[in-house]
Amino acid sequence: MHIIKSGTLVGLTAMFLSSTAGLAMAEPVTINFLTAEADGSFDAAIAAFEAENPDIKVNFETVPFDSMVPTIESRVGGKDSSLDLFLVDTPRVPAMANSGYLRDISDRLGAVEAVASEAAQSVLKYNGTLYALPLWTSTQLMYYNKDLFDAAGIAYPSSDAAARMTYDETVALARQVMAGSDAKYGFVPEQIDRYYQLQPIFEGNGGGTGLTGEGNLTPDVANDKWIAAGKFYSSLFEDGLAPRGIAVDQMQSVFTSGETVFYVTGPWRLKAFDEATNLNFGLAPIPYWTDSKAQTPTDSWAVGISPYAAHPEAALKFAEFITLNPAGVGLVLESIPNVPVNQQAYGPYIDWLAGENPAVGDDLKKIMTYELADTPVPRPRSIGYVAFETVLNRAFSDIRNGSDVASTLQQAQQQLGSQLRRIQ
Amino acid sequence: MDRITPRQALRMVVIAATALCFLMPLYWLTISALRPEADIFRFLNPFGPWTLIPNQLTADNIVGLWSGSFSRAIVNSIVVALVTVIAGLMVCASAAFALAVIEFPGRGVVFTTMIVSFLIPFDAIAVPLYSIMRGFNLQNSYAGLVLPGIGNGLAVFLLRQFFQGIPKELREAAMVDGMGWFRIFWSIYLPLSRPALVSAALIMFIFQWQAYLWPLLIAPSNDMKVAAVALAQFSSAYNVSFGLIFAGAAFLSLIPMLIFVFFQQYFTSSVAATGSKE
Q: CB-based contact (8 Å) between A65 and chain B?
């Protein structure tokens, strides 16, 4: 009797479970996708994905850019199952993977290898495991003000990579243009106290990335080459070639106002510069150091899946759509025209971008295609990257504001030594 | 008519200059909201007349501000702040009354715990609190946004100090007349404590109006965003809309400013009278 009752109970339970499972399958699942992009920027891609996958709904969540990392760390760190996938800053992949904030997606490695270069793949991995899918990459361009060159009666710099100027030549040319025109500044890197953009000045001088040793956990930011690069960087502000007291966010106004000879930033500023009144600009490759190989900043955002996602398979399906599927990549690029990592999407992208900026289109295509293929140098791969970047950015800011270069870098070296030892 | 002495004139000049220094950020905020975006930082260096006098005015920033999701965020902020003030006053005034008037064992410990609680930065408890709220399924809800603002230790402290200043003869007389604790609280203490209640309400309003980290965590949905978060979103990874940021900041400053101006007399008299035994 007891067995019969138990058997009936098991049968009823099985029927109940199977019926609820049927209901669950019929109900579309909703995945939550966190970004720092503007409202609506993924709408076209989401609509196309949902049309192809009626059983999955994508809820787009956006937070302010500066709050993106703390938000992810708080929510994933708190094992929040309502966060399924999010954008990841690629230099942070090792630290996030090491903290258990990213799901292992190594089974998708073959699909990634089919669309991304080896260098682009390397920034998505940690200890040989794939943790993110490739979305965007980046490069830098040197914009120059044609009107200031005309006023000074000096020929424009070349857009050919073969005729790339050194840092010393660039500064000398900027001084000449300043002397012959009403230019206020000569050479301004936009992200004036961030490692991302200053890496070619410091590492490009032959002094290394700033991190060495096993796992890149030993600082090396006070060697002779770094100090020499720091003195060059300091002289830009000391000599009035670049401004003090202007925040990174406000920096572009020194170029749009027509008062700067050379301005280094990414292709994402093209639209703003194109719309600026009375700004006539051209493009050249960013400078390099004599006796060193040219290098350009690279990397951008990738897509990661939370290890605590309520719907990891659905999240991965959407992530693949916007990163690996050229149609999905193209739909995202319509609203966020960043450089796609997906090589199949790059051709149509660069043609479109050149067409959108006809005045500089040919030079743009030539420089970007060359730099992305031949000169990109990723930021160092380390679980201590966040501490490294934070300390160095502060040191760059101090140098910019007039602190002694050698002592500032030695202080940074000490701080990093103690912080990275703790991480080790 | 008395002549102004040089000393008085000097004092007036110093006062006027000080007032000007305080007004300058507000003036800068306002003109930046009304300037074309390209002009906002254009005339900063060298400092000249066009730094402070806009040579071109535009309503683009104001129009742009209201054409997006910012208006929804403002409504959310107002709802959250008002509900917090109403519910918070009920809870905090009741707690303060109990701590000030009713003698019960452990009263001092409870009061000390409350004082310590408002000294702990909210950011330190935000993440564990978020886990608890998520357990109650309060993500993307007004309840999730409002609840942490209701029990405000500083408001309890202010109200308790004020209640202690009310002569105990009043409640003793009321008790003789047969009033219970609730009637004494409702009919005697609350009407006499209007300045302190206004002050506590302002504290709670400002707490919610400028809240950032908590709404960011608990209400990530676009429909539930509050104004402070929506304002920060005008700065994205690749673009910063300074025109919209200044217009939004001007509007977000205006509302608490109007409230402060309207309730100023209560606020100052409350702060002055808090803790008075007279």
A: yes
- Global confidence as pTM: 0.81
Q: What is the CATH number of the domain that holds B238?
A: 1.10.3720.10
Angle at CA of residue A38, ends A36 and A41, nearest 5°: 110
Strands A301-305, A85-89: pairing kind: antiparallel
Chain B: closest CA distance from residue A237 (Å): 15
Helix axes B122-135, B142-150, angle to 10 degrees: 140
- Which residue segment(s) compose the domain that B54 sits in? 6-58
Considering the domain architecture, whether residues A8 and A62 belong to the same structural domain is answered as yes
Q: Which residues contact A256 (CB under 8 A, 6 or more apart)?
A: A272, A273, A276, A279, B38
**For the segment B16-44, what is each residue's pLDDT rounded down to a tens digit?**
999 999 999 999 999 999 998 878 887 77
Minimal Cα–Cα distance from A66 to chain B, Å?
Answer: 8
Residues of A in contact with B237 (CB under 8 A): 36-37, 65, 301
* Among candidates A34, A60, A65 on the partner chain, residue whose Cβ is nearest the Cβ of B236: A65
* CA gap A156, A146 in Å, rounded: 7
Q: Is residue B278 part of a domain?
A: no
Query: What domain range is A312 assigned to?
Result: 2-137+299-356
B177 and B52, same domain (yes or no): no
Whether A268 sits inside 8 A of B239 (CB atoms) is: yes
Nearest-CA neighbor of B230 among B238, B221, A273, A70? B221
Q: CATH code at A100?
A: 3.40.190.10
Chain A: residue nearest B43 by CA? A257
Spell out the per-residue pLDDT of chain A, length 424, in tens: 344 444 444 444 444 444 444 444 457 899 999 999 888 889 999 999 999 999 999 999 989 888 888 899 889 988 889 899 999 999 999 999 999 999 999 999 999 999 998 888 999 999 999 999 999 999 999 999 999 999 999 999 999 999 999 999 999 999 999 999 999 999 999 999 999 999 999 999 999 999 999 999 999 999 999 999 999 999 999 999 999 888 888 898 899 989 999 999 999 899 889 988 889 999 999 999 998 999 999 999 999 999 999 999 999 999 999 999 999 999 998 888 899 999 989 999 999 999 999 999 999 999 999 999 999 999 999 999 999 999 999 999 999 999 999 999 999 999 999 999 988 7
Nearest-by-Cβ selection for A67 from B68, B134, B232: B232
Whether residues B214 and B93 share a domain: the answer is yes
- Spatial distance between the Cα atoms of A385 and A416, rounded to a whole number of angstroms: 10
DSSP state of A258: T
Number of domains in chain A: 2
The last residue of a domain, from among B58, B81, B102: B58
Cβ contact A296:A367 at 8 Å: no
My answer on whether B202 and B87 are in the same domain is yes
State how far the Cα of A321 lies from the Cα of B136, in Å rounded to an integer: 33
Which of residues A356, A381, A403 is at a domain's end? A356
Task: List A30's β-bridge partners, or say none.
Answer: A57
Do B108 and B41 belong to one domain? no
Residues of B in contact with A31 (CB under 8 A): none
**Last residue in a domain, options A313, A329, A356:** A356
Quick one: B29 and B100 in the same domain?
no
Contact map slice: A 35-54 vs B, CB within 8 A? 36-39
Picking from A34, A249, A277, the nearest residue to B240 by CB comes out as: A249
